[in-house]
Description:
Layout: E1 14-20, E2 23-30, E3 32-37, E4 40-45, E5 51-64, E6 67-81, E7 84-94, H1 100-116, H2 122-142
Parallel strand pairs: 1-7
Antiparallel strand pairs: 1-2, 3-4, 3-5, 5-6, 6-7
Amino acid sequence: MAHQGVMAGSSAPLRLEVVSPDRRVLDAPADEVVLPGKLGYLGVRAGHTPLLTELGIGQLSYVYQGKTRYLSLSGGFAEVLPDRVRVLAEAAECAEEIDVERARTSQQRAQQEIASRRAASEEEFLEFQVRLQRALIRIETAAKREG
């Protein structure tokens, strides 16, 4: 039997807020959030111990009422509170917003730069690797869009 509302002993959903420098990307309820931390993925549910963490490049996923949704993230920070997760991302896109052709073009450019600049500085090489990783995460995330 399905229950509606908050039951005694259960907790209300988290509030998930994702913002980037140019916009509010998401403000939604979530039963569970999985964040791409700098050192690995972090799962969060209501009542989690407060923390502040640096984010890496990866997928943020969240579940609400049995449905999972995805966002691509690129760097930033997350504040986790018992009732809320706030993400301040350098870049973030919901799966449905990702332009796959543009992401593939970015992937190809980054791969070409990595292949053609063997003598490039280590800093340039790392930048091309980051661009490639961002493009690959965007493509992977777009593949998980609804419908």
